[in-house]
Amino acid sequence: MEKLTHFDEQGKAKMVDVTEKDITKRVARAFGKIQVSPETLKIIGEGKIGKGDVLGVARIAGIMGSKKTSDLIPMCHPLLINGCKIEFNINRENNEIEIYSEVKVSGKTGVEMEALTAVSITALTIYDMCKAVDKGMIIKDIHLLEKIGGKSGHFLYDNNTKIK
Predict the structure, then answer these.
(1) Given 22, 71, 128, 141, which residue is catalytic?
(2) pLDDT tier for residue 94 given thresholds of 50, 70 and 90
(3) Phi and psi at residue 7, to the nearest 5°
């Protein structure tokens, strides 16, 4: 396992210096979901939530969140996001809205945190817009699906890997 990069020799937090790194194409994809009641899923699908188009607003919030990641996560570098995409899959069997993000950048550092933030903010926005009718929603399973580019290479999530 590699050493943690956000601490100096004395154990103090620091921002990683990327001055000497090359600018390369980097892509990250993340996933998460929000479980809602069957009634809430029906109301979202019918467009009857009083605050508006839930998935449309959540998509915009997720994209905006990806661009604000460095404002939220202390050691993240501000990045000029080249592209961010949010997609949904409605899983009616489990009453879940699955959220997928993809973030792209040409830069000196990766966009994993931006992809994860996009999913998180998207799910939180769905919660906010629907909380008047369903306070029991559960946001879960947020994780990195894939990372492409950079010195550490390609990462692809293997759901057979158990975190200990």
Answers:
(1) 128
(2) very high
(3) -135, 140
**Whether 128 is catalytic:** yes
Residue 147 vs residues 48, 112, 152: alpha-carbon distances, Å: 37, 7, 9
Confidence of residue 163 (pLDDT cuts 50, 70, 90): very low
Binding site, annotated residues for substrate: 75-77, 113-114
- The CA distances from residue 14 to 24, 110, 141, 146, 157, in Å, are 23, 17, 29, 26, 28
pLDDT category of residue 89 using cuts at 50, 70 and 90: very high
* Strand-pair partners of 33: 98, 140
- Rounded to whole angstroms, the Cα distance separating 56 from 67 reads 17
CA distance 117 to 97: 17
pLDDT at residue 69 in the model = 98
The phi, psi pair for 68, rounded to 5°, reads -105, 10
What residue ranges define each of the domains in the chain, with the CATH number in brackets? 24-156 (3.30.70.640)
